[in-house]
Amino acid sequence: MTGQMANHVIVTDDGPIRILRLNRPDKKNALTDAMYEMLSEALENAAVSKSIRCVVIAGGPGAFTAGADLQDFLRAAQHMEGLRPQATRFLHRIAHAGKPLVAAVEGVAIGIGTTLLLHCDYVVAAIDARFATPFVNLGLVPEAASSLLVPRLMGTRRAFELLVMGRPLNADDAKALGLVNEVVPAGEVEPEALKAARQIAALPAEAVAASRRLIRGSTAEIVRRIDEESELFKRRLKSEEAKAAFEAFFSRKG
What we know:
Layout: H1 3-6, E1 9-14, E2 17-22, H2 33-48, E3 54-58, E4 63-65, H3 70-78, H4 85-95, E5 101-105, E6 108-110, H5 112-115, E7 122-126, E8 130-132, H6 146-154, H7 156-163, E9 169-170, H8 171-176, E10 182-184, H9 189-201, H10 205-216, H11 219-237, H12 240-253
Parallel strand pairs: 2-3, 3-5, 4-6, 5-7, 6-8, 7-10
Antiparallel strand pairs: 1-2, 8-9
Helix pairs in contact: 2-4, 4-11, 6-7, 6-11
């Protein structure tokens, strides 16, 4: 792995808090396979660490993450693959995350940028945050167990609006629907997220872990849905609808 790639995810520990910072600003923090791998390793290490009590996932000004890198999707479609193993490993890891997860969201949170928040325990968003899941627009299906967790969170009709129609949410909408805990000015997002993380880290760790398991419900059910979505995703990538949607997307970008 090159030094430049390693810098796309910056991992720092601040006492009992591990901070995972997405750092690919020129691409609005779009996630590559290498970034998925780095995030998975950092989460796996945190899960078994006796000193880490909470994990914060942060982006940067203007972008939490624009989602998975569509060039990776295009390569997967050309090689008849589904979700790459790196992405699947990350999805399983956030479903199994052993420590509480806090997210600090500024700017765009697209695709996985929105769906990973469903696995977080506390989310702080900037006033300028925008959330969208344009999977169906690309001829695909939702991922990260969002087809299970979004209806559970906000009901089937709002889930259809978000996941199928692809309508974006602003920060206030996201808070009203339960996706976000706090909405604050952009400059206050990380301080507020770290404040929440410190409050969580100060609680009795075993009691937090047991309570979190009760609140989150069956991890096995979540993982099953991730795998079911992944299989459908793989089939959809080969579809004429997806091929046409990707061609249209890249021709617009070109």
